[in-house]
């Protein structure tokens, strides 16, 4: 079997499982909407303030909602023994990890990015700026998925899994957050935002290529 | 080869080391003179964890395992062979413990691996199923292959070539 | 190439060596620290702009420098531990993490105390302070990861992986924070760079820098030997040492 069809089979399996677990997919989205509601209630409903903090709220809420889903990235396959079978299949582990990152991004990242559209009516956030925000978040959620795969794999056999997870992921996200904020900042003054966006995509691509190796190592460690 | 020993003696650890799932502190596991890590396709491992996803049905689980190990077989016949006829489309989480186990044991009918490493294969399998399994092991052995089994159940003595007893030691 | 290190793969030998290092370096560190601090706090001339508050530099700069040095050391050791599967190095990574965290916390605390008279605020979102704060969380991550495993060996290896991931990311984080800081320039301009520092101010600083480095070495060896004893407490050599020290 070629590596590509191997990769495709993994994606297909993840989607099949996701179809049977729709409630799990919805939970982070509901959580995201809930965080959004907290802000007008605590900051006050003035449109000026709300539209100013909207991109920050969007990013932070996406990160938090994503963290909610992250512990599940490998846990199920670890507990039911599928990971052992994958390990014994002789195919490179990096490939299966890469497939999982991509499927996780499609299943949790993209829906969250779409849901950030709620900022437009709720926070009076201009639609053209939302496009920029969505672009940074598409990159950002892919980065989050690849960084999260390392953390999630590292904590697989530990007991305190999810409580430590955020400590492992958040510090590494800071560069992405900085560049994304700079993109939206520039766009809101109708300036070109290519430079920070390139930086953000660059970081994402580098992380996406390197993270599977660390994750595969971590999985191997937790299997033994 | 039949591996016995009290709880905690290290049977599972030994089996996992044989497959390379467990890193051994020193030493090398080899099969036919070659390190086993270079010929993982010659090993079939079924551990305590069945490698079966609860949210998928039996047919999907079998299909994924087949593609993972690069093998082809008719899934319908396999399902009926392990006595799950009519249950192929039911998500595995609705099946009983023994039936779940059978979904994992389907691999024994397909696998061309030279070495079968089975950790407690008889768990929650009924008497008739055990007989079927034993017949399978016999056939596999006659074909010049090897079966490495741990169990707390006594195996019929004529089947066991080597009985290896692990002792608990600290 | 590393043949001379080979005997120290044995835990007893590594324990002996780290004990010895600790015993010899700790007094030297204390001596240096006393000399540097007394010189810096009492005899060094007063800064004409900052007055006496500049004297915090003698603690702030060494702890900040070695907080980063410790992280680099940890990352490199973690990498070697993973590549060559060396258990002793895994333990060394685990030994360093809390020490580095303490250095980082010290740098943050002295920075804040210094910031109060300088900037009029305990905390300013200055690039250096922010990077240092992130570094603290990176350290916390490493040992939180270690302590979240029941099996210490797995925990130590996981900590090594994280340390390596961290060391790759630290430059990215550092430069992005610096870039962010120039973007939001305005409120404060740091006068940290200290391009020219007079000799009699510099000497105590150099002595304290050395003192902190020796401290770091001593504390790491101490923590390493305890971690090693803890990890091998069921082994014969460790039990003999424990029995000896109980008498």
Overview features:
heterotrimer; B: 170 residues; alpha/beta; Rossmann fold; 5-stranded parallel beta sheet; two-stranded antiparallel sheet; 7 strands; 33% helix; 14% strand; globular; C: 247 residues; mainly alpha; 7 helices; 0% strand
Topology:
The complex is a heterotrimer of chains A (224), B (170) and C (247).
Chain A: H1 3-20, H2 22-43, H3 47-69, H4 72-80, H5 82-88, H6 93-115, H7 119-122, H8 127-154, H9 161-188, H10 194-223
Helix pairs in contact in A: 1-6, 2-3, 2-6, 3-6, 3-8, 3-9, 4-8, 6-8, 6-10, 8-9, 8-10, 9-10
Chain B: E1 2-4, H1 11-19, E2 30-31, E3 34-35, E4 43-46, H2 58-68, H3 75-81, H4 97-105, H5 107-110, E5 115-119, H6 127-142, E6 146-150, E7 163-165
Parallel strand pairs in B: 1-6, 1-7, 4-5, 5-6
Antiparallel strand pairs in B: 2-3
Chain C: H1 11-43, H2 57-84, H3 87-119, H4 127-147, H5 152-183, H6 199-231, H7 236-246
Task: Report what the structure shows.
The complex is a heterotrimer of chains A (224), B (170) and C (247). Chain A has 224 residues and is mostly helical. Chain A has one domain. Helix content of chain A is 86%, strand content 0%. Chain A is globular, with a radius of gyration of 18 Å. The model of chain A has no long low-confidence stretch (mean pLDDT 91). Chain B is of the alpha/beta class and 170 residues long. Chain B is 33% helix and 14% strand. Chain B has 6 helices and 7 strands; from the N terminus they run E-H-E-E-E-H-H-H-H-E-H-E-E. Chain B starts with a strand and ends in a 5-residue tail after the last strand. With 247 residues, chain C is an all-alpha fold. Helices cover 77% and strands 0% of the residues of chain C. Chain C contains 7 helices and no strands. Chain C has helices at residues 11-43, 57-84, 87-119, 127-147, 152-183, 199-231, 236-246. Chain C is globular and about 60 Å long. The model of chain C is unreliable at 186-191 (pLDDT under 50). The chains are: A mainly alpha (224), B alpha/beta (170), C mainly alpha (247). Chain A binds chain B through residues 1, 5-6, 9, 13, 16-17, 20-21, 76-77, 79-82, 84-91, 223-224, and chain B through 16, 19-23, 40-41, 43, 45, 47-56, 60, 64-65, 67-70, 91.
